[in-house]
Write a structure and sequence with these properties.
5 helices; four-stranded mixed sheet; 16% strand; Diaminopimelate Epimerase, Chain A, domain 1; single chain; globular; binds zinc ion; alpha/beta
Length: 204
C-alpha cells in the first residue's frame, strides 16, 4: 500500500507515513470511524442494472474459482465533489467488511475498485497480501484500459474489463512467480507463508 497523500510506500501495519506524516486516523476523522458493510459489489447509487450486476458477479465468481485466495470488490458511489479518490479508497479498504454468503473476506486479500460517479473516475487499492501479485504498472494499465468506459458511464463494460484484465494479469504474474521459485530461480528460498501480512492492526 502507498501513502494516499504523497504515494510513499507503506509497509504492512504502518498507519503513519514516515515521509509526509500522513496518518490513517486522519481519514477516519474525515470519512468516519465506523466499519462499512459491503458485498462483492456495493452500489450505493443503484446505478447498475440488475442483469449487468449479475453479469459482473458471474465474472467475479469465475475469477475467484481461479484465485480462491484473492477477492475483487467493487464500490460505486456519488462522492462529494473534490473527494480525493486515493485517500477515500485507502480509508475504505481499511474500513470495509466485505461479506459473501455470511463469510467475512480478509481486506488484505482484496482488490478494491472504487468508482466515483460524481467525477466519473475510479481507482484501485489493494490489501497487503493482494498487492504483491501486481505491479504499479499492472494497476495503471488496468485503470487506463477501463477509464474511458467509466468516464462514459458504461459501468458494465468498464468493470467487466477491470475484472477480466486483472484475472489475465494475475495469471501471467503467477506463472512468472512459479518459474522464479523453481530450484535456481531468484525466489527459490522464499517462504510463501511470510508473504501474508495483516493489512492493519485492528486490535486498538
Ligand atoms: Zn506520505
Amino acid at each position: 500500500m502507498h501513502c494516499p497523500s504523497c504515494e510513499h510506500r507503506l509497509v504492512a501495519g504502518q498507519d503513519r507515513c514516515d515521509l509526509c506524516g500522513f496518518h490513517l486516523g486522519a481519514l477516519d476523522a474525515r470519512y468516519g470511524g465506523q466499519d462499512v458493510a459491503m458485498d462483492q459489489i456495493t452500489d450505493t447509487t443503484h446505478f447498475l442494472r440488475t442483469h449487468d450486476r449479475d453479469h459482473l458477479l458471474d465474472s467475479m465468481d469465475a475469477f475467484e474459482d481461479q484465485f480462491p485466495q484473492l477477492h475483487p470488490a467493487i464500490y460505486i458511489a456519488e462522492l462529494p465533489a473534490k473527494t480525493k479518490l486515493p485517500e477515500f479508497a485507502t480509508w475504505l479498504i481499511n474500513r470495509a467488511r466485505v461479506s459473501v454468503l455470511d463469510e467475512l473476506r480478509q481486506s488484505e486479500n482484496t482488490y478494491l475498485f472504487v468508482i466515483d460517479l460524481t467525477s466519473r473516475s475510479m481507482t484501485v487499492t489493494c490489501g497487503y497480501f493482494a498487492e504483491q501479485f501486481v505491479s504499479e504498472n499492472d494497476l495503471r494499465e488496468l485503470l487506463e484500459d477501463a477509464s474511458p468506459y467509466i468516464a462514459a458511464g458504461d459501468l458494465r463494460e468498464g468493470l467487466g474489463k477491470l475484472i477480466e484484465n486483472l484475472r489475465l494479469i494475475l495469471r501471467r504474474n503467477y506463472r512468472l512467480l512459479l518459474k522464479s521459485m523453481k530450484p535456481g530461480g531468484p525466489l527459490a528460498t522464499r517462504d510463501p507463508g511470510t508473504l501474508a501480512k495483516p493489512l492493519m492492526d485492528t486490535s486498538e
